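Progress narrative, work stream C.
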Amino acid sequence: MHRYGWVIFLTLALVVVTGPLYVQELKERERLRFEEQQEKNERLARQIDNMEEIYDHRVQELTESRKENRKLLRKLDEAHEDIKDVKHRNNELESILFNQRETYQNAVGMRGASMPVLTRSNFTAKQYERAWCSLGAHGLKGTGEALVRAEEIYGVNSLVLSGIAFLESAGGNSRLARKKNNLFGLGAGGADPYRNALSFSSRSECIYHTANVLRSRYLSRGSLFYRGRNLAAIGPNYAADPLWANKVSRHMSLIARAAIPGGR
C-alpha cells in the first residue's frame, strides 16, 4: 500500500503541477482561435466594404449610363422627327416644283386654253411681282399675295387668274381697275358697261371674289355655267369674244416667261 500511495501522490502532484499549464495552454489556444476568427471577420468586413463600394460605384455608373441613354434616346427621337420634317418638306418642294413646271410648260406651250383650271400652279407672290415689273403692268403691282392666296383657298390656278386679270384690266390700268378695283370686267355688260360693273373695296377682294365665282359657277359639275374645267369651256359664258380663251392663254404665256425667266 505504501508503494501505491506514492504512485497516487506522484500522480496527484503531476496533475497539480501540469493542470494549470494545461488550462493555460487551452486558454492560449482559445485566444489564438478567437484572434484568428476576429482577423477573418475583419477581412470579411473589409471585403464586404470593398464589395459595397464596388456595388455603389457600379450603381452610380449604371444610373449615369441610364441618364445618358435617355438623353441619347431623346436626341434620336428628335433626329427622327427632323428627318420626317425634312422628308415632308422635300415632298412639298418636289410637289411645288412639279406644279410650277407643269403650269409653266402648259403656258409657254400655248396650252393655257385647254389646261385644267382647278390645278395648282404654286407660283409665288414674288414671281408675280417680278412679272408685273417686267411687263410694265404697274396697275397689278401688289396683287401677287392675293393671287397665291386665292389659289390656296379656292383651288383655282393663280396663273389662269392672273392671265384673265391682265387681259380684262389691260395690266391693271383700265378704268374699271383704277376706279372700281374690278380687274376681271365683272358685271361690265349692257348699254353702260362701266356703270353696271361691280365695285370692290380692294383688288384683293376682287381676286378672291372672282376665284370663288369661277369655282362655284363655272367649274363645279351641275353649276349654272359648267361646260368643262378649262378656259375654252368657261369662255362662251364669261366673255362675248369667241377668242377670249386663246387671248387669256397668250397672256398666261407672257406672265409665266416674265415670272420665271430661266424657265423650268
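Work stream C, second folded protein:
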Amino acid sequence: MDTMRDITLANDTVDNCRYCLMCRHVCPVGHVTRLETLTPHGWGLTIASQRRGMAEWNEENAEVMFQCADCGTCRANCVTDQPFPDTIARVREELVGLDLAPKRVRETADRLRNWGNPYEEREPTTGAGSGDTALFVGDEAAYIGSDGLAAAKRLLTAAGIDPVAVGHGRSNGYLPSSLGYADIAADIANANLAEVRATGAKRVIVLSPGDHYAFTTLYADRLDIEWPSDVEVVELVSVLDSSESVSFSAEKDARPYAYVDPAHSVRLPERHETPRALVSRVMDGPARELFWRKERAHPVGSTALQFTDPDLANHLTWARLGDAKQAGVGVLVTEDAGTLSHLGAHASRFGIAVQGLYELLADRLDG
C-alpha cells in the first residue's frame, strides 16, 4: 500500500473539510449526540489540530475518532466529493499504529484476524465447485441472517440461477478497514478474490449494498486492491427485479409500511428505487417514506460503530425506529442482515414490526 499517498490524501481532505459545513446537517452521529465534536466538521478540526501541532493524539481524542459511523452520508452529500470517510479510516490506521485504538476495537480486530469475522469463532467455509455465477454470503448473512440467506437461495432457484457460494462466514473487508486495520482488510479481500477466481465466475451476486460497495469501491480506494474487471458485481435485488422467471403475489395487509435503506446505500445512489419496487410487489398496504432516506439515508447501528461505540450505535437504531414511528409506519422492510438484526432487537419498544425483504419475497412467490 502506498502509505505516503494515503497520508497526503487524508491531509488534503482535512484541509478542505475542516471549516466546511456542507454535510454537517446530514451526519447521523451528529444528529443523535448533538455534539459538534462528533460531526465531520468536528472530526476535521480534531485531525487538523493534530496535524498543525496544536494537539497530540491521546486516548481521549482517539476515542472521538472512533465515534464516526463510517456510513458515507457525508460524502454522498458533498458537491466536491471529498473522501472524508476514507480519511477517517486512514487516521484510525495511524491511531492503531500508535496503540491508541480502544480496547473493544483491538478485540474486534483480533477476532477478524483469527476468524475472518467478528461474530463466531469459526473459519469461513471455503467454496467448492465452479460456475459462471457466484453468491457471496459473507459473515452477516451466515451468522446473524440465516433466514434471509435461506430465502435468498430459494429466490435464486426460482429465478433459475444455481450459484457457487463463496465467502461463507467471511467479512467483505469493510469492518477491518473501517477500524483502521488495513492489513487485516487486505488479507480478507485477497481471500475473497481468491475464492471468486477459483470458481471461474464472471458474475458475483451480493446480498447487500455494503458488499457491493466493498468490492467495487472500498478495495480500490482504501486497500489498492482492484476487483477483476471481467467479473460483474450485482445485488440480488437487481437480479430479482429484472428476472422474467419469478413473479410474486401481494398479501392483504393494511398496515402502512416503509422500506429502510440499509447501511451503505448512500454510497450507491443508483440502487434506491429497485428494492422499493420489489417491496411494492408483495406489500399492498400504504407505502410511506422515512425522512432520512435514499441520498440522505441514515444507517442503524450496524456499521463499524457497533464495534467502536455500541451505545452510540443503539442510538442510531432508535433514531431510525423513531423516524418510522413519526411517519406512522407499522412495518419496516429491508434486506440487509445487519440492518434487520439491529432493527429487530429494538422494534418492539416502538410497536413496529420488522420483516426481511428476501423472506417476504420467498414466501410470496407465485407457483
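The longest helix spans residues 182-199. No further action is required on this item.
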